[in-house]
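A quick aside before the break. I want you to see a complete sequence-to-structure record at least once, exactly as it would be stored in a machine-readable document. Don't worry about memorizing anything.
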Amino acid sequence: MKGKEKAPDVPPGGFRQSLFWDVNPAVIDPDKNAVYVIERILDFGEPDEIRWMWRYYDHGLIARVVKTSRVLLPQSRSFWALMLEPQP
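That is the input. The structure line, written in tokens, reads:
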């Protein structure tokens, strides 16, 4: 993404406790825990969190998570597969 400014390390306002109910959101490393963060945002993220994810992570990684995740909700997988499908 040459020429684009990289997103901050966390979404505006930090990670929500309700998004990461099973861990302390303050200790989540968005790089080391990329797949986990992407899965949660794809399933339960608010629009500002989705925008942050889209700017922060490589789009290929997001697409790979959609295709290979074993925990992504089926509805989320279907929706994001359509959204990430190349347009003609």
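Two observations worth writing down. The radius of gyration is 13 Å. The CA atoms of residues 12 and 70 lie 28 Å apart. We'll return to this after the break.
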